[in-house]
Specification:
By secondary structure, the chain is mainly alpha-helical. It has 17 helices and 8 strands. Helix 3 packs parallel to helix 4, helix 6 packs antiparallel against helix 7 and helix 9 runs parallel beside helix 13.
């Protein structure tokens, strides 16, 4: 039952009290009971995954849709979907009352709140190996949520308490890395028990996911040595995915292609000069082209109700290594890692993603290598929710004309209740 439950006794997806972040529902099972047993905390972490991954309210859909609409990966086929249409129009149309951003903000903070309780209480269990699994699994979702906040907002809450102080987005990425490091050390000290692995939904490889997310957020924080080292430790032949079922369907399949959002075209949102090659095999992997409407159809990881969605991709780890080398002026190594992605055939990738292109010939100038890394990140990681972060001044410094907004406004649910909320960005 734990594998199919959203743990209704504790998990409340959207809390109307907003920034007060008082997430305990007095009509439900007392928190001290839920967080006093292995079974109770297992229910909570299973709930974290469900809340993060499923439905139009979940983080996966919101991250993909918000990012895709702001960066021209996606468009809205129906004007009836007002929140998505506002993102597509961008600028002042995306304000503090925006419903998707409000939902996203509340859901993320709810997940962080519950994850904190698990991480604090799991070490009190006598079964340290089971406790290790709880800490590691909760840390994955806490880190993902901190990272998601830091990718969209200039500053993020440092905690989930009332009147929370805010920290910079870069410090947010560093905090996510710290959360993951703590989990990695916990797992190294006490191996996760088989009983825990059997109690959670199949799909996520905990060890490799902790390392992959560490690599991602260390890169975003500018810690290139740490990012590269973590990426090198990730197995590129091991899957780590969110699995779905009829009752909890794949949110991409559920909400794209003549529904809520849709692929804009086969350029994958890239500007002229960075278009994918006509022979790049990643394009038909992600976007099917029809002779009738809809002209461009999302494929990739949204082709079926039960299609799994990867937590990270092998190509992301390769590109993290390439970028880390390039930022440190190790251009030969950067080009070698980049070419591992450029020449990768679909059969060489565990998900079937491969450009199958001719290798780039060096030596190349640093800016040329960085441009190619950006281009390949946009293609390899299409609809991953990472593109807006890649466009920033401290990453690839893309023109603001290529996106609809730079940072998101703080929802009224936060600013009306928290005097520490920063001012909204102009764009």
């Amino acid at each position: 039952m734990l594998k199919s439950s959203i743990y209704p006794a504790i998990i409340i997806i959207i809390i109307l009290t907003g920034c007060k972040k008082n997430y305990i529902d007095p009509s439900r099972i007392p928190a001290e009971n839920a967080f006093a047993s292995a079974r109770g905390m297992t229910g909570v972490v299973v709930g974290l995954q469900r809340t993060y991954s499923v439905s139009r309210l979940g983080c996966i859909y919101n991250s993909i849709a918000i990012n895709g609409l702001l960066t021209n990966e996606l468009f809205v086929p129906s004007v009836g979907n007002a929140a998505e249409l506002q993102l597509q129009e961008g600028g002042s149309k995306v304000d503090a009352a925006h419903t998707m951003l409000t939902t996203y903000w509340k859901t993320i903070n709810k997940i962080i709140y519950d994850a904190n309780l698990v991480i604090a209480n799991a070490p009190k269990l006598t079964d340290k190996n089971y406790a290790s699994g709880l800490v590691a699994y909760a840390s994955i979702f806490k880190a993902l949520c901190i990272g998601n906040l830091a990718m969209y907002w200039e500053k993020i809450p440092d905690t989930t308490g009332a009147n929370a102080q805010f920290i910079s987005r870069i410090d947010g990425f560093k905090k996510a890395v710290w959360v993951l490091d703590n989990a990695i050390k916990t797992v190294q000290a006490d191996t996760i028990s088989n009983n825990f692995n059997k109690a959670i939904p199949a799909g996520i490889d905990i060890k490799n996911t902790l390392l992959a997310l560490k690599a991602r957020y260390a890169l975003f924080a500018g810690d290139y040595t740490t990012a590269r080292t973590a990426a090198e430790a990730v197995s590129l032949t091991t899957r780590s995915v969110f699995n779905f079922e009829a009752g909890f369907p794949n949110p991409i399949f559920e909400n794209v292609n003549n529904k809520i959002v849709q692929s804009k075209d086969d350029t994958l949102g890239l500007p002229n000069g960075l278009y994918p090659s006509a022979t790049d095999k990643r394009v038909p992997f992600y976007v099917s082209t029809n002779t009738t409407a809809p002209r461009f159809v999302v494929a990739g990881f949204g082709t079926a109700n039960t299609a799994p969605i990867p937590v990270y991709l092998p190509g992301e780890m390769m590109l993290i290594k390439a970028e880390s080398y390039a930022r440190q002026d190790r251009l030969t190594e950067a080009l070698n890692e980049l070419n591992n992605v450029v020449t990768k055939k679909p059969a060489m990738d565990i998900y079937g993603i491969g450009a199958d292109q001719v290798a780039l010939i060096g030596p190349l100038a640093k800016q040329k290598i960085l441009d190619e890394i950006y281009r390949n990140r946009c293609i390899e990681l299409y609809m991953s929710g990472l593109k807006l972060e890649d466009m920033r001044v401290d990453r690839f410094n893309r023109s603001e004309s290529e996106r609809k907004r730079n940072f998101m406004p703080y929802p009224f649910a936060e600013s009306d209740n928290n005097p520490n909320t920063p001012n909204n960005p102009a764009f």
